[in-house]
Amino acid sequence: RDLVKTFPGRRSRTGRPGAPVRAVDGVSFDVGAGETLGLVGESGCGKSTTGRMIVRLLDPTSGTVTFDGTEIGGLSQARLRPHRRDLQMVFQDPYSSLNPRQTVARIISEPLLVQGESAAAARKRAAELMELVGLIPEHLDRYPHEFSGGQAQRIGIARSLATSPRLVIADEPVSALDVSIQAQVVNLMERLQQELGLAYVFIAHDLSVVKRVCDRVAVMYLGRIVEIGDKAEVYGSPAHPYTRALLSAVPLPDPEAERTRERIVLLGDPPSPADPPPGCTFHPRCPKAQDLCRTERPLLRIAGPGERQAACHFPEV
Ligand code: SF4
Ligand code: MG
């Protein structure tokens, strides 16, 4: 609820501290048990920072993170420990997130050893997890570089599952992988979700990756959610101009539909969160911007039938 993360601003050349940067600026959402929420937006929009705050790899500047009725956003690391089992994270780059000097057995066991499990029990569990993610348990004593990118990400997934979590934050888990193996890893994550009853927050920079896996989707722009709702509603009739633009870049399978479709090309790059535009922060790039948009910040509110919300003065409904 109302998650905010502020980073100190860069110092100027004269040594004066810059204005603090609000990387995440008041983000709220829920994730149900066994559900997948897609969290989508361009790089730098705050989606990874949001994910890291949920698992407390980063401390929120303000706001709350409630897991199963317990507020964990403000707990000390010591008091957080019993909850650590329930919340785990899969990272974008499998190689840089796996310690190259540790064996796979050690990497996958780590979260269990932290929880006080014995070395023998942790190793046995690591072997089971290797099997669960489609790897060969006999390869436990190998090192990360001996695996392909797809296999390395399976190791990252196995590690995230070691403590039998109930929520996994997957931060662009396939974007560093070859296109040909992305589907295999997504399939694996779907199967694991069904078998283990996991909930996912699936972070991605475009809407096509999460289309298959998510139940609901939230679109972020410059540290805020600009649209959130059921997959069918958001993909079927996007209400926010930014969502429409992102969706118009997703290729359609039918060549004729692809040729005749509406294409919205956004001008320029997202503005810097250090110096956000006034009013609607999307207005410099929005094809529908009007005077009101330059002065008044639109808040998230119900747009159209159902539960879908959009932060736009002139939503498409
Ligand atoms: Fe565009 Fe205005 Fe809506 Fe912002 S509030 S997305 S500028 S139409
Ligand atoms: Mg990121």
From TrEMBL:
GO biological-process terms attached to the record: peptide transport; transmembrane transport
Domain ABC transporter: 1-247
Family: Belongs to the ABC transporter superfamily.
Keywords tagged on the record: ATP-binding, Nucleotide-binding, Transport
Domain of life: Bacteria
SMART domains membership: AAA
Record-given protein name: ABC transporter ATP-binding protein
A GO molecular-function descriptor: ATP binding
